[in-house]
Amino acid sequence: MQLDTKVNKEVKDKIDELRSHAILYKDGITSNVIEKCSFMVEVGALTVGTDDTGNVITQNTNTPTQFSQAAVDEIMNICFKNGDGVGIYPKVYGKNEWYRSRLNMVNESLELLESMVS
């Protein structure tokens, strides 16, 4: 499939962006340090974080906030809702598990996009 020049550049830019995400996620997996705060929490497609004042927020980020078990226990008691008001239950991941799943998604996307421009 031949892409026009503008689309081809956009795809190549996205490939470069995904490659940088892949490096970030690999680094997240290989940093083997003992961490007190080693859990990530997702609510739907978003991750849970905190704002500047320490309030719990949902956000779309490549490097989510890591929480301790005590913080995760508190977060699990918060009622999250989607745009339609339907409750969404948080999912908890270990740091390596979260980064590994993101790395797999990025690698799959890279494979598809690279096949478009080759």
Question: What is the compact description of this entry?
Answer:
This protein has 118 residues and is an alpha+beta fold. The protein contains three helices and six strands.
Please give the share of residues in helix.
40-55%
Low-confidence stretches: none
Largest sheet: 4 strands, antiparallel
Contiguous helical run count: 3
How are the strands ordered across the major sheet?
Answer: 3-2-1-6
Report, as a whole number of angstroms, the end-to-end distance: 9 Å
What number of structural domains do the residues give? 1
What general form does the structure show? globular
Walk me through the structure.
This protein has helices spanning 5-30, 69-75, 95-117; strands at 39-43, 46-50, 56-59, 80-81, 87-88, 91-94. The longest helix has 26 residues, at 5-30. The model has no long low-confidence stretch (mean pLDDT 89). It has one domain (5-117). It is an alpha+beta fold. Helix 1 (5-30) packs antiparallel against helix 3. It has a 4-stranded antiparallel beta sheet with strand order 3-2-1-6. Helices cover 47% and strands 19% of the residues.
Any descriptors?
four-stranded antiparallel β-sheet, alpha+beta, globular, 118 residues, 47% helix, 6 strands, two-stranded antiparallel sheet
